[in-house]
Amino acid sequence: MGARPLTGRNRGGGWGRRPPAAFLDHLAVERDGALPIAAQIARRLRDLMLAGGLARGARLPATRRLAAMLEVSRTTVTAAVDILTAEGFLEARHGSGTYVAAQLPADRLARASTGGTATPGPTLSRRGTLLARDSPVASTGRLFTPGLPALDAFPLAEWRRALARALRAGGSGLLHLADPRGWPPLRHAIADYVGPARGVACAADQVVVLASARQAVLLAGNLLADPGDRVWVEDPGYPDAHSALRAAGLTPVPVPVDAAGIDVAAGRRLAPDARLAAVTPSHQYPLGAIMTLERRVALLDWARAAGATILEDDYDGEFRYGGRPITALYGLDGGDRVLYVGSFSKVMFPALRLAYLVAPPRLAEAVAQARRAAHAEPPALTQAALAEFVAGDAFTQHIRRMRLLYRARQEALVAAIRRHLGGVLVVDPSDAGMHLVGQLDRAVADHAVVAAGSRVGLGMTALSRYAAGPSPGNGLVLGYAAHDAAAIEEGVRRLARIVEVVQRTRG
Nearest 5 degrees, angle CA 285-CA 435-CA 221? Predict the structure, then answer.
């Protein structure tokens, strides 16, 4: 049956000045509806009260009489009345009956919204406003998305075997919470890898496994600086790192970057008392500069004199195409004032969500305690499988293959840009990384090109997006690792048409 009006006659009064039919015509229940009948009655009576159809202070008929009028059981009506009483729409008076409340909940809400002494609803703090303004660059499957690895060339068969070995070896132990510092075999595998590969000589007890490099920045900010303290950040630099530092209550100080890396002299002038410096010395993000030895020594000298700590994000240090990989700043420091951060998301695949932090020996226990307090351990099975993958030959072989592949794809991108966008977008090859920065003609706004490109499947980002200070650049950050030469060629043709349209529109 469908809806039908509830009929009956009220001889007991209490309905206000209008006859009962004027109200009952508005009341109908769905006998076979999804919502229980008691809830339907409560909702319809509530609507009548809010609309003024039931006057404030009016007495309702007894539940037995109301049930007869509505042709439902008394239990159902009692349940509806109980709902409305609990919500504050009805009030029971001992020995007298049930009445519409003289002051409905909506009355109180209305007064609060129209002034008086009521406080406004939740508002963002100053720090919350800054955090809400940040919009991290998302890793998608779009062409030219920065940081996206070659998923088409990932050794899935080897990864499946690593998962199977981890399950056999770990068994039900993988169903428990892991050591909050990370799965011990994985920490040992990381320590064994970063020593010879990146010059980061460390013990497994210095390694903490995390979900992301951003989490490492947040942990370091919370542990090594107090709210309000100033910290150096690269300008332009990685927005996720900046937002993580703000989330820790710190004040990022943009320090300019040039071809030699972060300008230490400028940092000394801008914030000599900074407690922390977040840098990407092996391949500056996004510009790609490799910090010179002179700058590295100057940065370490400043940190020692200022009592500061350096957070080194080595996000893609494995991918260097000319000569040996650059030794990490941590190795030059000797494990004193540098925290080293590495990530597997770019080396392996983004959904892995595993990174790590290597702390100096004197900070290792404090970092482990801070990690324990964070209560955000990555899944034990994923860690165990990665330990199997890194400890064997599959990991190093994969990196070697990707170096060759990424170098070829970078060459394809540079050649295509010079063919189709020469003079408008200037890009130079790099000896490292998974992306290139193309400098745009000043007449073509990078954000306009990116917005138009997103509508046709291109995922590059605007260089101005990475500005931490008042002088944004004008260019495009173009990832090349995830797509083959044919896709890159077609993407650059598409990009050339977009740039032409943007130029014409501005002209």
Answer: 25
The CATH number of the domain where 356 resides is what?
A: 3.40.640.10
CA nearest neighbour of 371 among 184, 217, 178, 208: 208
For 135-189, what is each residue's pLDDT tens digit?
544 546 689 999 999 999 999 999 999 999 999 988 888 877 668 889 999 999 9
Percent of the chain with pLDDT over 70: 85
The CA distance from 214 to 244, in Å, is 6
User: Which pLDDT tens digit goes with each residue over 8-49?
Assistant: 334 334 444 444 555 555 666 777 766 788 888 888 888 888
* CB-count burial class (<10 Å; 0-12, 13-18, 19+) for 95: exposed
Range of the domain at 485: 397-506
* SS3 assignment, position 323: coil
Q: Is 121 exposed, middle or buried (0-12, 13-18, 19+ CB in 10 A)?
A: exposed
Residue 472 sits in a domain whose CATH number is: 3.90.1150.10
Residue type, 125: S
**Cα separation values, 409 from 117, 398, 434, 457, 485, Å:** 64, 16, 9, 19, 6
**What residues contact 292, with CB distance under 8 A and at least 6 apart?**
260, 261
Domain count across the chain: 3
Q: Are residues 377 and 473 both part of a single domain? A: no
| Average pLDDT of every residue of the chain | 85
Q: What is the pLDDT of residue 227?
A: 93
Same domain, 240 and 365: yes
What is the model's pLDDT at position 6?
A: 37
Residue 451 falls inside a structural domain: yes
pLDDT at 300 over 50: yes
Residue 94 CA to residue 104 CA, distance in Å, equals 20
Query: What does residue 261 show for φ and ψ, rounded to 5 degrees?
Result: 105, -160
Is 185 found in the same domain as 244?
Answer: yes
**Domain identity same for 385 and 403:** no
